[in-house]
Amino acid sequence: MRMETVNILGVPVAGMTKDEVLEWIRIMVEQRKPRHVVTANAEIIYKAYREEEFFKLLAKADLITPDGSGVMGAARLLGKHLPQRVTGIDLTQEIFRVGEEKKWSLYFLGAGPEVVKKAVLNTLSLHNHLNIVGYHHGYFSQQENDQVVSKIKQAKPDILLVALGAPKQELFIQEYLKDMQVPVSIGVGGTFDVLAGTAKRAPVLLQNLGLEWLYRLVKEPKRYKRMLALPKFVGAVLKSRMKTKNSSK
Ligand code: UDP
């Protein structure tokens, strides 16, 4: 399958629409080799830019989608085009829609015990034919990792949704990818909170204006520290643009 990428601070972000990503997932579910999908926001890319270990980890991912207007804006600054934002929640909802028809089996891992349970129940009430083969909350210790992994292995899902927040979910997926043998594992951040109704998405108008981050900041002011990465990210992208321009002179 053709996959064009836009290089943002060394991270190859896929220039694919949601539909193309779903088609990619369909093929990977058929191939049955374990693959890792990252839904990357500016914070994740900036972390990879700053930390070599994390950069190496992201380099092992099979698909990196642009999750956020910061990443879309960065591509524009570099004179490149990314067709569409593909966020964790968007991708999850598309997987429910297509998965119900294709009979994909899903496993939910992450969020608090009540949140993940509610997320599963709410999902099933909207998609009664969806095959959810198991779920587990995301507050387990390092010592419990093996136990959680063996539960996932027993359930044999086609797709594993991991909502442990970044970078925990990316570290977990890479560490256990081979062992779990799940065809597609995706880090989906705060998705279960949205599905459970404990967190709300920004109104569509704000989403379309690329201002979902502002809505989240107002709802969860605690996030402001994390959001300070955004201007630094933009600065680094501008610097990388200057370098490319100078080297092509
Ligand atoms: N979470 C978890 N285990 C942890 C830390 C976080 O399951 O040890 C969950 C948390 O309950 C929330 C999600 O991970 O549902 C993180 O959501 P957030 O919106 O912060 O995701 P991010 O923006 O980091 O991708």
Series of secondary-structure elements, N-terminal to C-terminal: EEHEHHEHHEHEHEHEHHHHH
Shape field: globular
Query: Biggest sheet, open or closed, and with what strands and sense?
Result: 6 strands, parallel
The share of residues in extended strands comes to 15-25%
The percent range for helix content is 40-55%
Ends apart, CA distance between termini: 34 Å
Biggest sheet strand line-up: 4-3-8-7-5-6
**pLDDT average, as an integer?**
94
Beta strand count: 8
Q: Which residues form runs of ≥5 with pLDDT under 50?
A: none
What is the count of DSSP helices, taking H or I runs of 4+ residues? 13
Structural class: alpha/beta
- Number of domain units: 1
Cofactors and ligands present? uridine-5'-diphosphate
The whole-angstrom Rg is 18 Å
